[in-house]
Design goal:
Blueprint (H helix, E strand, L loop, with lengths): L3 E3 L3 H4 L52 E3 L2 E12 L2 H4 L6 E15 L15 E2 L2 E2 L9 E9 L1
Antiparallel strand pairs: 1-2, 3-4, 4-7, 5-6
């Protein structure tokens, strides 16, 4: 499927026009324009993000920052085995089932790594738009044993 999304919040840009208190510094945002060879992070002329400015003048809506928010996710996978009743009847048990399960095991997306594709438009609201700063969906593993007498 196709899903384009423009995430124009401080959570996406890093440096924000309202000043340092509304700014973030995530690993992905280090890919910003640097043309000074003396910069401690080195040159980066082929960057994704513009140079961080608190004025917001270089954070214009354009297709270069349009995110591909389409995704595919393996939400749940469960494997189980029910012990045959011929075996369980010998020990006075009706049914024994053993299982392992996993939730949110795999996601394939081209969306910026700081966002979860299911929650990219969730979180706090700033000026009427959500910034996407929600906890990502957790990967959960579980196992169990079910015994019926």
């Amino acid at each position: 499927m196709k899903r384009d999304y423009f995430q124009g919040s401080y959570y996406f840009w890093g440096a924000w026009q309202w000043g340092e208190w509304w700014s973030t510094g995530l690993q992905q945002q280090l890919n910003y324009f640097r043309n000074d060879p003396k910069d401690p992070l080195g040159l980066n002329l082929n960057s994704y993000y513009p140079r961080p400015l608190f004025s917001g003048q270089n954070q214009q809506t354009q297709t270069a920052f349009l995110q591909d928010a389409s995704y595919i996710r393996l939400k749940n996978l469960q494997f189980g085995y029910t012990v045959p009743s011929a075996i369980t009847k010998k020990i006075a048990i009706d049914k024994i089932r053993i299982y392992v399960s996993g939730d949110n095991l795999w996601t394939l997306t081209k969306l910026a790594k700081m966002f979860d594709p299911e929650t990219v438009d969730g979180g706090a609201s700033v000026n009427g738009s959500n910034v996407g700063n929600v906890y990502p969906l957790s990967t959960v593993y579980s196992c169990g044993l079910s015994i019926n007498f």
